[in-house]
Design goal:
alpha+beta; Cytochrome p450; about 55% helix; disordered N terminus; disordered C terminus; lipid metabolism
Length: about 500
């Protein structure tokens, strides 16, 4: 018994010693504090991560705002396992993003890199990023998107065709399905059909997203472990049930095209196995980024226009004006999309208030002087774009949904308000136009074909992405053509 107590005491002492050593090595030297802005590192090891997550899981996240009030627009913290400087001002964020490849490189947390893959576009920098960027810009060029408008509209119509018969539905599930189907066909062609394979992939992407935003603790039952397992299933499903299928003539295929492109680039050290892994990461990253932003924007746009009858009225007028200009209900065109000016303002305001990406991560490649402080080499710079989007210095009554605040930008770009929904600098999202076109087409068919009303109370939260507690349950019915608004919007 006495020996057992001695052993337990030794175990406790060893644990305490290891803990002290870990904290000593993982915590920054106090002498650096004079160069850093104010702030707190939170608890040992986990830092302020749990406080941040807890705040974002509420309907009114206050973590960033409280620290901004206490310490100013820049403050130090420890988030997702990394010591960092958080910046909340739009101009400062733009400055940081513009210095990609100079004083900063992409610096997303370990959980992002492990779940999506070390070679996803979010993780690449240097020559590898430049090569991928060239491919992305070409694959998402406007000329190609113009040709894809009919495909996008076909997926929208296909998805909405069953809405009236369902009566009550979850907008979150519907928009996730639609957005995934659009980007999957854009990347992989028509081989990914609706059915069990498609459903399995979408389900695994939900789990993958949770894992990306989790603490990188690889233990059974953790969201991080579940995210890694979901990634493995996604890769297996894509390669077994999609990529291995015959490629229809004339269709593009990001798996094959990206592999061929990277083979021609012939970056040093790229073996066939490494090339395959890079391709997997590329397609996974594109599938994730390509559907998450669009799905979230469509979801919240439905909520905002339901809550704002004047917005819905003007939106319908714009789209009915487009309808009446077409011969026998013809399909939408690129010119139609570019004429959806008020719709664009609705999308911009939606992304401002409920952008799925709340933080952009960069890593300093040298000591960086910024606003009287120093960001030490190797530290993360966390760009809090949600705070920038709610800044009253730019937005009057920032919590209010007001798409008209963006109307002046159409005629006078110099008055453009800061929007960081698609990033900035050299990493500005090349898929921005695809996402906007998809959302515009969705809203066109939604407001011209349906009446809709919310079925019950919903609570909004913002972690890991903005969502509603019940998926935004909505009752829909087909519109009576006799009720159409006759107001015409001048082009």
């Amino acid at each position: 018994m006495e020996m057992k107590m001695v052993l337990q005491g030794l175990e406790t002492a060893a644990f305490l010693c290891v803990s002290v050593v870990l904290v000593w090595h993982l915590w920054p030297a106090r002498k650096e504090d004079k160069r850093l802005p104010g702030g707190s590192y939170g608890a040992p090891l986990v830092g302020e991560t749990l406080k941040y997550m807890g705040s974002m899981k509420t309907s009114a996240p206050a973590f960033m705002a409280e620290r901004k009030r206490k310490f100013g627009e820049m403050f130090k913290s420890k988030l997702m396992g990394a010591f960092c400087i958080v910046t909340t001002k739009a101009d400062t964020i733009k400055w940081v993003l513009a210095r990609e490849g100079k004083q900063f490189v992409t610096g997303y947390p370990k959980s992002f890199r492990k779940v999506l893959g070390e070679y996803t576009a979010l993780s690449l920098h240097g020559e590898q990023w430049k090569s991928t960027r060239r491919f992305l810009v070409n694959a998402l060029r406007v000329e190609l998107l113009k040709d894809r408008i009919p495909m996008i509209e076909a997926r929208v119509v296909e998805n909405l065709s069953s809405w009236a018969s369902k009566g009550t539905l979850s907008i979150r599930e519907e928009t996730k399905t639609l957005a995934f189907n659009v980007v999957a066909q854009y990347l992989l062609g028509s081989r990914l059909k609706a059915g069990p394979v498609n459903d399995a992939l979408r389900s695994d992407f939900y789990t993958l997203t949770e894992g990306m935003f989790a603490l990188p603790i690889n233990l059974p039952g953790t969201n991080f472990r579940k995210g890694l397992e979901a990634r493995a299933r996604i890769v297996e499903t894509l390669e077994r049930d999609v990529v291995s299928q015959p490629r229809p003539e004339g269709e593009e295929d990001q798996y094959a095209d990206y592999m061929e492109y990277m083979r021609k680039e012939n970056l040093p050290g790229t073996t066939e196995e490494l090339l395959l892994e890079k391709t997997r990461c590329h397609v996974l990253g594109m599938l994730f980024a390509g559907h998450e932003t669009a799905a979230s924007a469509m979801l919240f746009a439905v909520k905002y226009i339901m809550d704002n009858p004047r917005v819905l009225s003007e939106l319908r007028a714009e789209h009915e004006n487009i309808q009446t200009s077409k011969f026998e209900g013809g399909s939408l065109t690129w010119d139609d999309y570019k004429n959806m000016r008020f719709t664009q303002s609705v999308i911009t305001e939606t992304l401002r208030l409920a952008n799925p990406v709340t933080l952009l991560w960069r890593e300093a490649t040298e000591d960086v002087q910024l606003n009287g402080f120093v960001i030490p080499k190797g530290w993360k710079t966390v760009c809090a774009i949600r705070e920038a989007h709610y800044d009253p210095a730019y937005y009057e009554r920032p919590s209010e949904f007001n798409p008209w605040r963006h109307q002046q930008e159409v005629m006078n770009p110099a008055k453009k308000l800061p929007l960081l929904a698609f990033g900035g600098g050299p990493r500005y999202c090349p898929g921005m136009e695809l996402a906007r076109a998809e959302i515009c087409i969705f809203l066109h068919h939604l407001v011209t074909k349906f009446d809709f009303e919310q079925c019950g109370p919903e609570t909004v939260t913002f972690f890991p992405v903005p969502k509603f507690s019940n998926g935004l349950q909505v009752r829909v019915s087909e519109r009576d053509p006799a009720t159409k608004i006759k107001l015409k919007i001048l082009a």
